[in-house]
Design brief:
It is built from 15 helices and two strands. The chain is globular, with a radius of gyration of 19 Å. The chain starts with a helix and ends with a helix.
Length: 293
């Protein structure tokens, strides 16, 4: 049986490589994300409630809502979890005893293989689609067009949700593909077409829930719709590959010519989609539970 929302929140790490990466990227969307862990702590932070009986009532209602198969909370968690599982955590175990230390990265180069630009481009596209699907599942919507999703990004994304998208742009876009990452993704979609997605683990993980018979067409349309938002996000925040590398370089030692290896390392040793996804689901769930309790 899968973990309850209580267990998911209580098991969130207060410090690991994922948390270090998210904190390192806090400068991109300052003040939007705080690593609150633990169910009761999350309830207090989101609702402002401090009365123990009231907190318990919200907690119990949140459990009921999460366990209701007709709601989309568990499905959204499944999507966030599946994305990170597909990226694999090869480096996580090897890094577990390094938390709190300055991690020397170069010694791990032999264990890592950077993704080709095609694979990285596909991963970025599929993660955007995964975010779209999770959003409408989480908000109880029957479906969501790429254009509606862009409107949601502009108007509704904040906190852990905005932090997740900022990390996506930084870690899965700028860092491995460079400042022209949007153009590289466009070229991959145009030149490789559907064949680029064959055998891709992230695509395989969620292909069954992509809401279209023409899955490649839906992915392409979603990227095209979100591309403008990503470009505006990069320009409005002043985000660059160098800034991302410098900030992550505060806890991972690497040379300037190994950014593709750094991206591979982060793919394999972090789970930022799952971590912030749990926090996003918890926020939506707890706010609704507070209204009902």
């Amino acid at each position: 049986m899968s973990d309850s929302i209580i267990q998911l929140l209580d098991k969130l790490p207060s410090d690991n490589i994922t948390v270090k990466v998210l904190k390192a990227l806090d400068f991109v969307v300052p003040g939007e994300w705080e690593n609150i862990v633990g169910c009761d702590n999350t309830i207090v932070a989101i609702t402002g409630e401090t009365d123990a009986d009231r907190v318990m009532a919200i907690r119990n209602r949140a459990i009921e809502l999460y366990n209701d198969a007709g709601e989309g909370y568990q499905r959204a968690i499944w999507i966030y979890n599946s994305v990170d599982k597909a990226d694999a955590a090869l480096g996580a175990a090897a890094m577990a005893n390094k938390i709190g230390e300055k991690i020397g990265f170069m010694s791990f180069l032999g264990k890592l293989t950077p993704k080709a630009d095609t694979t990285q481009s596909v991963d970025l596209c599929v993660k955007i689609v995964a975010e779209l699907i999770a959003y409408y599942k989480l908000n109880g919507l029957p479906s969501l067009s790429p254009q509606e999703f862009v409107a949601a990004l502009k108007d509704n994304y904040q906190g852990s949700s905005l932090m997740r998208m900022a990390t996506l742009v930084a870690v899965d876009g700028l860092l491995p593909l460079g400042p022209n990452f949007l153009q590289k993704v466009e070229e991959t979609l145009a030149n490789k077409g559907q064949s680029a997605f064959e055998g891709n683990p992230v695509f395989s993980a969620i292909s069954g829930i992509i809401p279209s018979d023409d899955k490649f067409g839906f992915i392409s349309n979603t990227f095209s719709a979100v591309e403008g938002w990503m470009g505006n996000f990069v320009s409005s925040t002043g985000l660059t590959q160098e800034k991302v590398a410098d900030s992550i370089g505060n806890f991972v030692e690497f040379s300037d010519d190994s950014l593709d290896f750094v991206a591979a390392f982060l793919d394999q040793s972090t789970s930022y989609y799952r971590h912030t996804g749990i926090q996003s689901v918890a926020r939506r769930l707890i706010l609704r539970a507070a209204e009902d309790a």
